[in-house]
Specification:
With 342 residues, the chain is α/β, with parallel strands linked by helices. The chain has two domains: 157 residues, Rossmann fold (3-Layer(aba) Sandwich), CATH 3.40.50; 153 residues, 3-Layer(aba) Sandwich (Rossmann fold). It contains ten helices and 14 strands. A seven-stranded mixed β-sheet has the order 10-9-8-11-12-13-14, sandwiched between helices. A five-stranded parallel β-sheet has the order 1-4-5-6-7, sandwiched between helices. A two-stranded antiparallel sheet has the order 2-3. Strand 2 and strand 3 form a beta hairpin. Helix 1 packs across helix 8.
């Protein structure tokens, strides 16, 4: 049975990012639904939906950000509770999808946890998923239900285009896997393109081997999907400055900022780190050089389109796939023929 667009969507949130859920609700003109999401005395997650959801179109807004396991369990139990309450359709809205970096077997005897999490979300009761800037695009195929994938590129481009003109600007990919994203930014900003060739020493550290592309005398914009311990980012900033870049800024969607990230960023020569509000930044991890942009209006519009059965393709930029197949005129990446996609 198709959801009736005359009934407004119902929004619910766990404890991962209630401020973001409230912002989405304000943009939609719909309040966040009443639900108890707490803990029993022994630590088990306790959920009770305090509104009637029978036959309604429900959206659960819950990024699986740190503490990842707690927020994932809240999401799964919310899904189960609302499914058992006879909701017509349930969309899991994950502004940030945790476990996304465990998307393949890169060593012997390791799991593909991103696939496991996709299975859990589906079995728990989700009918579809809405997310943003997945760490690996193939994760979309891990779900056996529809998934809508939003991108933060236009939000960042709107911000940087006010201050960074195309003259003397180079967009930098922090690794080979990020070339596609960097090319989309470079095309929109009419900028040059470069790439950092790095070697990962451990899960918390990376060593820059080379920079492919001209950065001397340029302002550099590093783009990526997430920043965790900031080891790779700080190393890239250092290498760019040593290669002659003037000012270095970064646009990174998900500010995980775990472990030594705060100290590393504070001590680095990075001028500004611009992130989105998909993940809340705790007070003890905030630093002056971090600027937060809201993507709540984008998610609100996506939820409206899903609820009204309208096309969402204009929001998640299917044209990105076509645009990135075309060469930037006069902006070839040196050594490009030697680069292999991972």
């Amino acid at each position: 049975m198709v959801s009736d667009p005359r009934d407004p969507p119902l929004l619910f949130s766990g404890n991962a990012n209630p401020a973001f859920a409230a912002a989405v609700g304000r943009a939609l003109g719909v309040p966040v639904g009443k639900a108890l999401v707490g803990r029993f005395s022994e630590g088990e997650v306790r959920v009770k939906i305090n509104e009637n959801v029978r036959g309604r179109d429900v959206f659960i807004i819950q990024p699986t950000c740190p503490p990842v396991n707690d927020h994932l369990m809240e999401l799964l139990i919310l899904l189960d509770a609302i499914k058992r309450a006879s909701a017509r359709r349930i969309t899991a809205v994950l502004p940030y999808f945790g476990y996304a970096r465990q998307d393949r077997k890169d060593q012997p005897r390791v799991p593909i946890t991103a696939k496991l999490v996709a299975n859990l979300i589906t079995v728990a009761g989700a009918d579809r998923v809405l997310t943003m800037d997945l760490h690996a695009g193939q994760i979309q195929g891990f779900f056996d239900i529809p998934l809508d994938h939003l991108f933060a590129v236009n939000t960042f481009v709107d911000y940087f285009s006010k201050d960074l003109g195309p003259q003397d600007l180079v967009v930098v990919s922090p690794d080979v896997g990020g070339i596609k994203m960097a090319r989309a930014y470079a095309k929109r900003l009419r900028a040059n393109l470069a790439m950092v060739d790095k070697r990962r020493i451990s899960h918390m550290e990376a060593e820059v081997m080379d920079i492919m592309g001209e950065v001397k005398g340029m302002n550099a914009l590093i783009v990526d999907d997430l920043v965790s311990t900031a080891g790779s980012l700080v190393e890239a900033v250092r290498a760019l400055k040593e290669a002659g870049a003037r000012e270095v800024v970064a646009a990174i969607t998900h500010p995980v900022l775990s472990g030594p990230a705060r100290e590393r960023l504070s001590a680095s020569s990075l001028k500004e780190l611009v992130v989105t509000d998909t993940i809340p930044i705790p007070a003890d991890r905030k630093i002056p050089k971090v600027k937060v942009l809201s993507v709540a209006p984008l998610f609100a519009e996506a939820i409206r389109c899903i609820h009204e059965e309208a096309s969402i393709s204009g929001l998640f930029h299917e044209q990105w796939e076509e645009e990135t197949k075309k060469e930037l005129p006069g902006k070839k990446l040196p050594g490009r023929s030697k680069i292999k996609s991972r």
